[in-house]
Amino acid sequence: MNNSLLVVLIASGVAYGTPLLFAALGELLAERSGVLNLGVEGMMLVGAVMGFWTVQRVHASTALTLVLAIVVAALAGTAMATIHAFLVITLRANQIVSGLALTIFAGAAGLSSYLGNDLNLADQPATRDFHALLPASMQNWPVVGPILFGQTILVYVSWACVVAVAFYLSRTRPGLNVRAVGESPAAADTMGISVTRYRYAHTLAGGAFAGIAGATVTLAITPQWVDGITGGAGWIAIALVIFAFWRPELCLVGAYFFGALEALAPQLQARNIQLGPTVLWTNSLPYVMTVLVLVLVSSGTARRRLGAPSALGFPYVREEH
Amino acid sequence: MKRRKPARAVLLLTVGALALVSASAGWGRSNTSSAAPFKVAWIYVGPHNDGGWSQAHDEGRQYVQKMLGNKVQTTYKENIAVGAQFNQTVASLVAQGYKMIFATSYGYVTKAVAAKYPNVLFEQATGTLVTKNVAEYFGSAEDTIFLSGMAAGAASKTGKIGFVVAYPIPEVIRHTNAFALGAQLTHPGATVRIVWTNSWFDPAGEKKAAQSLYQAGVDVLGQNVDSPATGQFAESVKIPWVGYDSDASKFAPKSWLTASVYNWGPYYLKRVKQAMAGTWKSGFYYGTINDGFTKLAPYGPGVSATAKTQIAVVERLIESGSFSPFTGPLYDQSGKLRVASGVRMQVLKGGTNSLYGMNWLVKGVIGSPKG
Amino acid sequence: MRTGVRISVERRLSQPRWLTVAVPVGSVVFAFLVAAVVLLATGHDPLPSYRLLFDAAFLQTGSLDQTLIAATPLAFTGLAAAAAFRMKLWNIGAEGQMYMGAITGAAAGLYLGGRGGPSAFVIAAMVVAGCAGGMVWALIPAILRAFFKTNEILTSLLLNYVAGYVLTYLIFESESYWRQTKGFNASVFPTGKPLPPSALWPGWTIHVQGGIVVPLGAGLALLAAGLLWLLYSRTRFGFEAQVLGDSERAARYAGVRVRRKILAVMAVSGAIAGLGGASQDGDFNHALDGDPNGLQKRGYGYTGIVIAALGRYNPFAVVLIAFLLGGLENAGNTLQGPSFPAGLVGVIQGIILFSALGGELLIRHRVRIGRRAGTVARATTPEPAA
């Protein structure tokens, strides 16, 4: 039963959806403050390569090294995000263009590749990587075994992050403030909330999460380094935030759904279930569904409750308000 | 307060830029010295350090560079897609004076490109185009893949084996069949499940494929793709693994069984020397175990002594020419007899019953040959 | 009231001409300086690398040919982005619109083409078909924006992926019309059906410096730039579009039909991108390229957006910048190999883009350092989100 298609798909969805979840949570925070960051893929890759580098070069106990690697990855992502933040918040540059420039700069043909080659990280397995945390006996429990207990610690950490971000946004003062900043920066400003500071903080936090997402790929899912190893996950994460109506708990559901879709085609093949152009559908479905969600969200009364932060994508210039 | 400073600064910068450009223009004209080294380039479809196909070619290139020293200047271009990017790469290599190009993936060299540069020698791997300045080269990897399949069959307890494959093209189908036939030799009745990744090199996709095969019940994994991701997964679930293209045992020291590896170096050296001496002739080269073109990578801990002996025996038979894996009777997945008893499949002759044209899977392979 | 040393940024009232040229140039220089620091810090010598770069991009024999090949698609996507962005319509979908134009353009070429030399009729049909394909794909986010107020940034971005999967499907996962199915070679690897000879786009050879081949697409891109410039600066359509971009409310008062404008401008934008796709078929690939590691890895659509921004949406500037960035791309391909650090081209491109973006600030704003009191925010409503 634990090898039935459904259980396997859900378990795979959780595992493969975790980098998506981390990246989406980070992008969600940035977007809630009004900053659109299209450079997620670049930030993930730089986090991935630096996290991998840490594991290969640091000679300490496994646990310590892995923790350090995650920290380094987060810092690397934050460093990338700082460039974007500086450009769009302080220098009021166009957020779309800056985000794309970041992807070009840090992405598969840019800084991450440069670092990967210069630091000689290719063609070697990770000396340490994340394995399933709980003992095999628990992993064999029916249904919940593989789905819940067969995961790495990063998955469990991601759950904690979802709870934390949700709590932060809905129940804490700063969380409510950032929502105000994203909806109406002028009003927030008059209330004494520093728009600049909140945007910086949340954009940088977004970078940290993206870095961790990248490290999840090179240290848990495919423990090696190749150029562009994240394979476009950053873009899916951006779509995921929209799909989840900018809500953390829905990010989790969406991430696992998208992750399961990724795993669907090979699973069907392995079981010799021929369903025609499966790959086309499973690959396109997340995007098509997100478009539909967007349309839903932007039309009619749903708009205000479920919509994007109103000031998303625009620099806030006090003198112009 | 008038701000002249930015204007001056910008002007200085602009002048500086122009100076830089003109200075480099002065240096720009490439000079050709006498006794110039022979320039030969390699073009890879993936990263030069992919731990698989392209890396094996790059090792061949390095072998040539080492053996010929400064008589030759080698370079490589990686991640070059078939089509316009390849053509552009060739154009820029030729403009830089490269006289010989090894194109290491199918579809790279077209008639048009070859005709455009009649004085450049092209060597195309795994293809079929042969013209005055285009030669083809490949080898009977199916023989060594057959042997590696034998190792897989011997290591399997249930007879259920998984195989991660790239594109549903005759080359991959042929290799899959070889693997399956080998497995069935040491483990009669073995089945081989396949999952297509639609890419030569895609670690994430290959891991998903490997995982899905494992969850569908296989107890040994093999591959015809270029990254070691399948092996890493096999190691993590403690099942044996057969690799491909190169010795990737460091990725899965306990799971590693063996792999069919290509030894491109000697062929490359021979051809470059011929080109330099002016004796290069076009043709279709199909290497074998005998001339060292293909061989098995060193065994891992999971290959039993019995299996080693069996493999050695069969290898001897192949080398001597007494045995070919693709000898009839061969049945396809529906049970129909495709190759009559005793008939040996040829490389090019025979349509869909030729090695290069084979588009059907043998009995015991579970999956579609159409992808 | 806050006092103390403040760096304040104020919008300029007028934008001095020299600055609009000096800043982009200055940012390129600045970028190369920063990249030199990066190179030095990682143990590479910047001057030889740069020399190689310029050489490979513009100076070597045949390099201009290659640069034009790299620049042509960038010019199309840059113009496509500029066309839409001028009106503050954020069409991020040039990538997907290009794929769709490639599909429809190839279909026209395959269907109508035959033997003989390049036929004006067939090529014209490919041009029209390519424009149509891109246009239709752009109309999806356009309609969603015009009628449902859905943010076009996100919808056009998402549709890029769908377009890519469709493109791959046509060649790699099906036996479609576009796929080469006959002949021995066809079964060995999925490829697009080659375009018949009369569907191949010609090039012009300029007899300078050993002969430079200008592909038809490059000529078409230049033509498109001219037409776009005319459209925006000399027609009522263009005038209304710009008013709409500045203020939707003002446009409505002036009687501009907003919905129609949105559809029309996105259609123009998509058509240009689609033409770029047809050019890929006719000029360079001579078949439909569905390889996920081929056209889809190049990122022309996204780079085009950045080019449009750098060129400040001026069509001629866009073409020029496309040429320069094409040179950089070409140089990167030429230099790629064991002795040139991989990923350097992306790093340099990124730094150029960052510098130019930062430099934008200098054009639009004046930076003052001094003692200033804090300013009081005026409570006016911000512009509605796009």
Structure description:
The complex is a heterotrimer of chains A (321), B (371) and C (386). The longest helix of chain A is centred in the first third of the chain and has 29 residues, at 62-90. Chain A is built from 15 helices and no strands. In chain A, helix 3 (62-90) packs antiparallel against helix 11 and helix 8 packs antiparallel against helix 13. Chain A has helices spanning 5-32, 40-57, 62-90, 95-106, 111-118, 136-139, 144-149, 153-171, 173-183, 185-190, 195-221, 233-243, 248-270, 278-298, 302-306. In chain A, 71% of the residues lie in helices and 0% in strands. Chain B has two domains: 38-140 and 264-287, Response regulator (Rossmann fold); 141-261 and 295-366, Response regulator (Rossmann fold, 3-Layer(aba) Sandwich), CATH 3.40.50.2300. Helix content of chain B is 38%, strand content 19%. Chain B has a six-stranded parallel beta sheet, with helices on both faces. In chain B, strand 3, helix 4 and strand 4 form a beta-alpha-beta unit. In chain B, helix 5 (141-155) crosses helix 6, helix 5 (141-155) packs antiparallel against helix 10 (305-320) and helix 7 (203-215) packs across helix 8 (229-236). The longest helix of chain B has 24 residues, at 5-28. Chain B is globular. Chain C is mostly helical. Chain C has a domain at 67-315: ABC transporter involved in vitamin B12 uptake, BtuC (Orthogonal Bundle), CATH 1.10.3470. Chain C has 15 helices and four strands. Chain C has a two-stranded antiparallel sheet. In chain C, strand 2 and strand 3 form a beta hairpin. Chain C is globular. The two termini of chain C are 34 Å apart. Residues 374-386 of chain C have low confidence and may be disordered. Chains in contact: A-B, A-C, B-C. Chains A and C meet through helix 4, helix 5, helix 10, helix 12 and helix 14 of A and strand 1, helix 6, helix 13 and helix 15 of C.
- If you consult CATH, what is the topology of the domain at 67-315 in chain C? ABC transporter involved in vitamin B12 uptake, BtuC
SS summary, helix count of chain B: 10
Assembly state of the chains shown: heterotrimer
Radius of gyration of chain C: 23 Å
Return the CATH topology of the largest domain in chain B.
Rossmann fold
**Strand numbers in spatial order across the main sheet of chain B:** 2-1-3-4-5-11
How much helical structure, as a percent, in the residues of chain C? Answer: 55-70%
What is the H/E order of chain B?
Answer: HEHEHEHEEHEHEHEHEEHEEHEEE
How many helix segments of chain C?
A: 15
